[in-house]
Specification:
This protein has one domain. The chain is mainly α. 0% of the residues are buried. It has 3 helices and no strands.
């Protein structure tokens, strides 16, 4: 255990007088603060990750929106196991438009 000399505001020091085990109380309060800071850091990382993913999804949707009847013959299928990571989600209305264009291209409609 390490001994520290610290200075506290008078109002906090007065409240500590009533605490029976000040060392344990202060150590617990500091641990809780460290945990709070760690969680805030994780939350920031999650928000940054969400924003990055959201931008990727917008880019993917923009690409699919540009998909036209002429490009339908360029659509290929691959095994899902070959995919490394998802770049985003395609909006349902874009999927419907691509399906319609594919049906027309394949003369199914």
């Amino acid at each position: 255990m390490t001994h520290l000399d610290i200075s506290l505001p008078d109002e906090i020091a007065k409240k500590l007088v009533l605490i029976p085990n000040k060392n344990r109380f202060i150590a617990k309060a500091i641990k809780e603060q460290f945990e709070l800071e760690r969680r805030k850091g994780l939350e920031r990382l999650l928000i940054e990750g969400y924003k990055a993913t959201n931008l990727e999804e917008k880019a993917v949707n923009a690409e699919w929106e540009r998909a036209s009847l002429e490009k339908c013959n360029q659509i290929r299928t691959i095994d899902k196991q070959r995919l490394i990571k998802a770049l985003g989600k395609i909006r349902p209305e874009i999927i419907e438009a691509v399906e319609e264009a594919t049906k027309i291209h394949l003369e199914m409609k």
